[in-house]
Amino acid sequence: MFGRKHLMDELNPVDRAAGVLVGLGALNWGLVGTANFDAIRAALGRSKASRIAYGLVGASAAYAIARASQLAKK
Q1: Residues 28, 69, 62, 7, Cα dihedral to 10°
Q2: Do residues 31 and 38 lie in contact, with contact meaning Cβ atoms separated by under 8 Å?
Q3: pLDDT at residue 38 tops 80
């Protein structure tokens, strides 16, 4: 037990930030699907900031998939 690293020990701050953004994006899509309410659009409107937020969520998801495959190989 002492010699083995846990997955959480291998996560860096970028991994954690990507996880938070993916989680928030998933919650937003859950709201869109269940209540037809887009929290990002409600908070930021139809602005460049909302497009950036959607882009960050998508980029974080791509990063999380790539990073998960790296960690799975270890």
Answers
A1: 50
A2: yes
A3: yes
Count Cβ neighbours within 10 Å for each residue of 9-25 and write b for 16 or more, e otherwise. Answer: eeeeeebeebeebbebb
Spatial neighbors of 54 by CB under 8 A, at least 6 apart, are 40
The 3-state secondary structure of 17-62, one letter per residue: HHHHHHHHHHHHHHHHHHHCCCHHHHHHCCCHHHHHHHHHHHHHHH
pTM exceeds 0.90 for this model: no
Domain boundaries, the chain: 18-73
Are 13 and 52 within 8 A, CB to CB? no
Give the Å distances, CA to CA, from 24 to 10, 60, 61, 65, 74: 22, 11, 11, 16, 27
